Amino acid sequence: MTCLKPELAIPGAKGADGRDYNAFEVMEPRAPNVVPQGMKNGKPVKDANLTPDGLYRPDYRIMTPNMRSPDYVQMSTAAAITLGLVEGKMHRCGCTRCLNLLLTYPEGCRANCAYCGLARHREAERNYADRNFIRVDWPAVSMDEIVAKIAADVEGTPFHRMCISMITHPNSDADTFTVLKKWTDKIDPDAIPISILSNPTTMTRADVQRLRDMGSDIFTVALDAATPALFDRTRGKGVQSPHSWKKYWEILEDARDIFGPKKFGAHIIVGMGETEHEIMTLIQQLVDMGGHSHMFSFFPEKGSLMDHLPATPRDQWRRVQLARYLVDYQGVRVEQMKFDDEGRITDFGIPKSELSNIIDKGTAFRTSGCPGKFAEDISACDRPYGDSPPSNIASYPFELKDVDIRRVRSQLDMLKPGQTYEAGEDFE
Ligand code: SF4
Description:
Elements: H1 43-48, E1 72-75, H2 77-82, E2 98-103, E3 140-142, H3 143-151, E4 161-165, H4 172-186, E5 194-198, H5 205-213, E6 218-224, H6 228-235, H7 245-259, E7 264-270, H8 276-289, E8 292-297, H9 314-329, E9 338-339, E10 345-347, H10 352-361, H11 402-412
Parallel strand pairs: 2-4, 4-5, 5-6, 6-7, 7-8
Antiparallel strand pairs: 1-2, 1-3, 9-10
Bound molecules: iron/sulfur cluster.
Iron/sulfur cluster (SF4) is lined by residues 109, 111, 113, 116, 118-119, 167-168, 235.
């Protein structure tokens, strides 16, 4: 059997019409289908009322058991492999450094974000615990079992951080407190720091304070969309979803006040129709507030309302990744950078030799998120292949080697004199 090299037509190679960025007018979500009454709110799962038997691996061909937080949570496939709960290997990764936990309910997330595999419009197609999210399945497991497993060997754990991802559900605030307490009752939060990926729509400032008081270390808000118009189109009125830009910013500002500098941040997806200038302005705003940005490259998640749209071209993604790293960790300001008429970065605002050294270190192109125990600018949350296939990596979940740097340089059109990169060279 031969190992096929990836073709240029794979996701992320180019945008629509061969452009090197995803323009606003292209990135229009499709309309959600109408969900029949009998499929709403997890009715089939609740009617069948099956008891889970140990870990549940998503399988939409069988009836999903009735699992509900805070007794059950879902975890990323990477975390389940790392814990030895499911078999599998990850391309060039031994493990993940972040235990990502996701609240779960038969009713699922009540929001309808256009790019998300967990969205409500999928009720008729797939039960909640079977839905793909950031390109992977999320096995469900008892929270008490996870805590017992980690608490048995905290010293030896590969995890540098644990993160609770809230979803939009009437019980998610209360259940996040319970899940957090289950963890901190048995595991010292100084040994494994805790992040909260919040759901601002249902939260108050008092909730943010309570999560801090209970021992969480970093609080993040998934803005996801970089502008108010994109937010409304992809997660607000445009797709009959309950979120508002204003409420998300209220909770982000509460997090700034309560968690303090470097202890709060925002998730942003690159390539949903914003310009590079718009996203860099937002990144600068977050840094000026004292926070960080955690970046994702848009990928057309199967079953989502944007699954027909192009992944972010690597040109656009690499420019924003590099510029964001300069602003977040190197003290460069967006005002020093230059942009063309279409908002694309044409000058990163620092001397070429300095820029070249930063590119060669490779850190700028690794997955961004809450830090682990290696360095402030290396994310524990490495999300292996959450925003791309291994054949055309967007966020590197591992330290880049020479071949990876050459690939990145070729995508940035910044190969050094005499340097080459042959498509697929890093995917033998
Ligand atoms: S609120 Fe979060 S989990 Fe729910 S649909 Fe939106 S992005 Fe997905």
